[in-house]
Specification:
The chain is mainly alpha-helical and 81 residues long. The chain has helices spanning 10-23, 27-55, 58-80. The protein is elongated. This is Ribbon-helix-helix protein, CopG family.
Amino acid sequence: MATFTSSLPDDLLERLTKEAKKLSLPKNKLLENALRLYLEHLKRVEYIQSFKRAAGDEDSLALAEEGMADYFKQLEEHEAR
C-alpha cells in the first residue's frame, strides 16, 4: 500500500476527526471509504451521461432498435421450442 500525504482545510479536518471518532474508525480508513464511494459515484455519472449522449445520436438509436428486434426474435424462437 502506498503512502499519500495531503493538506485539508481546518474545518474539513475537524469534521473528519469528529466523524472518525463517532464511527470508531481511523481517519485514513474513513477517507479511503469516502474516496471509494465518490469515485464510484463519478463512474455512475459518466455512465449516465454516456446514455444521454447516445439517446440523442440517431446511429446509436438505430443500432439499439435493431439489436432489440433481434433479441425479440430470439425470444420468440426460444418460446416456440
